[in-house]
Amino acid sequence: MLVESLGDRDLGADAVRRARQQRSVEGLQCARVEESREATDAADLLRPTDARRLRSALASAARSPGRPVTLDFPVWAKDGSWCDTETTVTSLVHDPDIRGLVLNTRDVSERRRLEEKLTQQAYSDELTGLANRTFFRSKVEMALKVALAPREV
Q1: In sequence order, what are the residues at sequence separation of 6 or more whose Cβ sits closer than 8 angstroms to the Cβ of residue 13?
Q2: For each of the chain's 153 residues, which pLDDT tens digit applies?
């Protein structure tokens, strides 16, 4: 029920606590709440660990005005899937026109899909789909790093 389309949207901190009362939240495409459930907290749209991370980012931004905090987390989508998002929290409590926290959230799902595709292309043979020399080299380097790392006793 909560959203229709996503671009970059600015959401006040009150919108995070009371999503239904914030008009900008309607632009957040990925978010949704079950029709039978009242949305009282935008954190309902996040996994519990991500909701804690968001609350921590809000507290951190409030303590450090002008210093943005950026975090990535999936948001529950209208179709029942998870939508990858990137959120930047900025404290503008000293700005007389805003006096609060501003959240800029964007859908990065397509970017993530393209990154995964590029990574797959970089580490596999285009014709056969099998792992290539670059993939093998990265795995050997990682194994050597682990094998040669100092160990605690």
Answers
A1: 58, 100, 101, 102, 103
A2: 233 333 444 444 444 444 333 333 434 444 443 443 444 567 778 999 999 999 999 999 999 887 899 999 999 887 888 999 999 999 998 889 988 999 999 999 999 999 999 999 999 998 898 999 999 999 999 999 999 998 876
> H or E segment at 144?
helix 133-148
Q: Which residue has the tokens 């006096």?
A: 99
Q: Are 2 and 94 in contact (CB under 8 A)?
A: no
Give the Cα separation of 118 and 101 in Å (integer).
35
State which amino acid sits at residue 51.
A
C-alpha dist (Å) from residue 94 to 14, 90, 97, 114: 16, 11, 9, 39
Cα separation, 108 vs 144, in Å, equals 34
- Its pTM stands at 0.60
